[in-house]
Design goal:
138 residues; alpha+beta; Alpha-Beta Plaits; 7 helices; globular
Length: 138
Amino acid sequence: MDRTFVILKPNAVKRGLVGELLSRFERKGLKLVELCLKQLTRDEAARLYEVHRGKAFYDDLLNAITAGPVVLMVLEGRQAVDVVRKLIGATDPTKAEPGTIRGDYGLDITDNLVHASDSPESFQKESAIFFSVSGKTH
């Protein structure tokens, strides 16, 4: 089975959407392997969004993801990365299809409720920031 890394961002936690969003993943047949509620440090956020360093929206991304607690999770299932990307929808909620998480609940492109790995390589890199091999959070 494949695995992917997902973060329910501070706005999802603040709006009380954690249960709803998690149930969408589970109803699609994805298995929850790791789960943690955590306040991200600026350093962790910088490591997560390293690919965007230098872009105009970089600081806004860091500010949004460190604004409150997040839910970190590893999900497992057949083609997990692709399945989750389809479930969450386009990055910009105004362009995300109805029925996707961002299409149904997203309000802003920067704080679009959820971050998800976009490849198996991203999963390896991103999940390693927060989870050790033993499954414990850092």
